[in-house]
């Protein structure tokens, strides 16, 4: 994925210019945790590990936290608070300003046919607009194609669990086992977990919805995820945890 | 407790808050929790920047005027560090609970109400900065702080780093200085009689403690170095604490 050099930075420290990728053609892209002070300074704003990707000519700070700050194109798990005239008000994290989800931001929604969401319901959505001066805006439809792409209201029996933001990011990685070191879901569905049947929806805001017909499975998967996160388990630790939980549940 | 004890810190001690830290040094133990950015109350809301709310809770009883004064000092210093412009109309809440403070063997502390307790400031600043780092709140820089007293002993001037309550009482003046990681002076509070020359001396000593650059030595050599300059290396301490936190967070990499 990226160059593996462990360099820990603190807010306000100067970054060694040799670490900054310099591609003559592409513009340098700054990710989370960095800010650019014109004309030339790039300064970290959080404590974490500096990661650079010379191929994409990008750099960011890898860190873990608990408070979600919305940013555009993040996939989040939101909870509907109430409905207003033409949008729903949704909560992304506790004690923050609610995000708006327009009634028409669903697949093939018109004024007459739109999904009716009740307060408390969960929605899997994308952050369409994140601006520090405005409340965030969500959408459940791709603006270019008009397709839902897996987004929308979450139905069926299940439960949402809180995890740290770093863990949610690892779960959302395309190759979460190789790049993120999380194999706990595969194990629960595979032979270690005895082939449990469940589905998940991971939000970048540190919420994971686990759905299954059996309440036992929901609790087991949720506990496995939370313990993996809190105790910082590696692949081998996760395998042991899954075996233990499955044994306890029998 | 003596002034030579090394500072200790633990991060993420409160699982339900966004960030937390427990810090103990020179007889003071403080636990801090940081929540934010969260929605501010209407009266605290500011159109262009985040409101930084600092709450200091004493080890026993409820806070009074003394705590309000400490809060106002901390509030103005920490607002300089946090990138408040990034989060308009929001609130960053910092709660500092004093758990332990050194006893003055000569007086009953319960009866002494009036005076300002400046010596606790460095512990409060350090804990707040650690908790903010633990919460991942975007900041301009980090900060380190120290307390220094000037005492007259056998007719000669003596500078005491991290003074005990008894030393503050018998000394002539006490100073608290905080520096940002860029080396700028963030906070300077003084109490007592002192000359400009004495203050300059205090400033140099505090700067040596707070802003020592790049510790090349480690282990025994550093311990000896500490004794030579009369104080721990706060910046190195902050960095090593954060390094271990980051490594623990990114164990999967």
UniProtKB/TrEMBL annotation, chain A:
GO BP: any one term: U4 snRNA 3'-end processing
**KW rRNA processing (keyword) present:** yes
Domain Exosome complex exonuclease Rrp40 N-terminal spans what residues? 28-67
Locations listed in the record: Nucleus, Nucleolus
Q: Which GO terms describe its molecular function?
A: RNA binding
Q: Which residues form the K Homology domain?
A: 158-215
Q: Which GO terms describe its cellular component?
A: cytoplasmic exosome (RNase complex); nuclear exosome (RNase complex); nucleolus
For this UniProt entry, what is the primary localization, expressed as one broad class?
Answer: nucleus
Residue ranges annotated as coiled coil are none
* The keyword rRNA processing appears for this protein: yes
Keywords, A to Z, come to: Cytoplasm, Exosome, RNA-binding, rRNA processing
**Family under the similarity heading:** Belongs to the RRP40 family.
How is this protein named in the record?
Ribosomal RNA-processing protein 40
Automatic annotation (TrEMBL), chain B:
The molecule here is called: Exoribonuclease phosphorolytic domain-containing protein
Q: Organism source for this protein? A: Corynascus novoguineensis
Give the GO molecular function terms.
RNA binding
Mainly resides where? nucleus
* Similarity-based family: Belongs to the RNase PH family.
Q: Which UniProt keywords apply?
A: Exosome, Nucleus, rRNA processing
Q: Which residues form the Exoribonuclease phosphorolytic domain?
A: 9-138
Q: Which Pfam families does this one have?
A: RNase_PH
Q: Which GO terms describe its biological process?
A: nuclear mRNA surveillance; poly(A)-dependent snoRNA 3'-end processing; rRNA catabolic process; rRNA processing; U4 snRNA 3'-end processing
The record's section on InterPro entries has: ExoRNase_PH_dom1, ExoRNase_PH_dom2_sf, PNPase/RNase_PH_dom_sf, Ribosomal_Su5_D2-typ_SF, RNase_PH
Compartments in which it is found? Nucleus
Q: Name one GO cellular component term.
A: nuclear exosome (RNase complex)
């Amino acid at each position: 994925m990226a160059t593996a050099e462990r360099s820990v930075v603190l807010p306000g420290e100067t970054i060694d210019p040799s670490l900054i990728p310099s591609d003559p053609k592409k513009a340098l892209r700054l990710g989370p945790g960095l800010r650019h002070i014109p004309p030339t300074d790039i300064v970290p704003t959080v404590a974490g590990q500096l990661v650079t990707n010379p191929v994409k000519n990008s750099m960011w700070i890898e860190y873990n936290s608990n408070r979600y700050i919305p940013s555009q194109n993040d996939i989040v798990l939101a909870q509907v608070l109430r409905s207003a005239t033409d949008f729903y008000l949704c909560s992304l994290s506790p004690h923050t300003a609610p995000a708006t989800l327009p009634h028409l931001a669903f697949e093939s929604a018109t004024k007459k046919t739109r999904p009716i969401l009740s307060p408390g319901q969960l929605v899997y959505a994308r952050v369409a607009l994140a601006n520090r001066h405005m409340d965030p805006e969500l959408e459940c439809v791709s603006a270019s194609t008009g397709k839902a792409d897996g987004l929308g209201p979450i139905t069926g029996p299940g439960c949402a669990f809180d995890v740290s933001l770093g863990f949610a990011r690892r779960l959302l990685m395309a190759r979460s086992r190789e790049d993120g070191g999380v194999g706990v879901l595969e194990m629960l569905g595979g032979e270690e977990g005895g082939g449990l049947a469940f589905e998940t929806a991971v939000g970048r805001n540190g919420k994971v919805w686990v759905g299954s017909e059996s309440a036992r499975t929901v609790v087991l998967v949720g506990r496995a995820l939370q313990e993996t996160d809190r105790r910082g388990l590696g692949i081998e630790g996760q395998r042991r945890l899954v075996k233990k939980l499955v044994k306890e549940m029998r | 407790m003596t002034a030579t004890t090394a500072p200790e810190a633990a991060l993420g001690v409160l699982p339900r808050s966004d960030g937390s830290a427990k810090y103990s040094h020179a007889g003071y133990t403080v636990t801090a929790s940081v929540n934010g950015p969260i929605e501010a109350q209407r009266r605290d809301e500011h159109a262009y920047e985040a409101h930084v709310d600092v709450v200091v809770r004493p080890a026993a009883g409820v806070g009074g005027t003394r705590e309000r004064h400490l809060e106002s000092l901390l509030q103005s210093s920490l607002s300089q560090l946090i990138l408040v412009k990034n989060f308009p109309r929001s609130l960053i809440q910092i709660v500092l609970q004093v758990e332990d403070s050194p006893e003055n063997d000569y007086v009953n502390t319960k009866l002494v109400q009036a005076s300002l307790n400046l010596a606790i400031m460095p512990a409060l600043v350090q804990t707040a900065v650690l908790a903010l780092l633990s919460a991942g709140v975007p900041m301009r820089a980090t900060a380190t702080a120290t307390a220094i007293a000037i005492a007259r002993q056998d007719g000669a001037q003596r500078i005491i780093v991290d003074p005990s309550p008894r030393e503050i009482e018998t000394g002539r003046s006490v100073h608290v200085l905080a520096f940002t990681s860029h080396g700028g002076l963030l906070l300077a509070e003084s109490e007592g009689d002192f000359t400009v020359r004495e203050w300059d001396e205090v400033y140099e000593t505090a700067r040596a403690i707070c802003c020592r650059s790049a510790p090349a030595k480690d282990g025994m050599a550093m311990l000896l170095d500490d004794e030579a300059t009369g104080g721990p290396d706060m910046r190195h301490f902050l960095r090593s604490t954060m390094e271990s936190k980051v490594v623990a967070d990114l164990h999967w990499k």
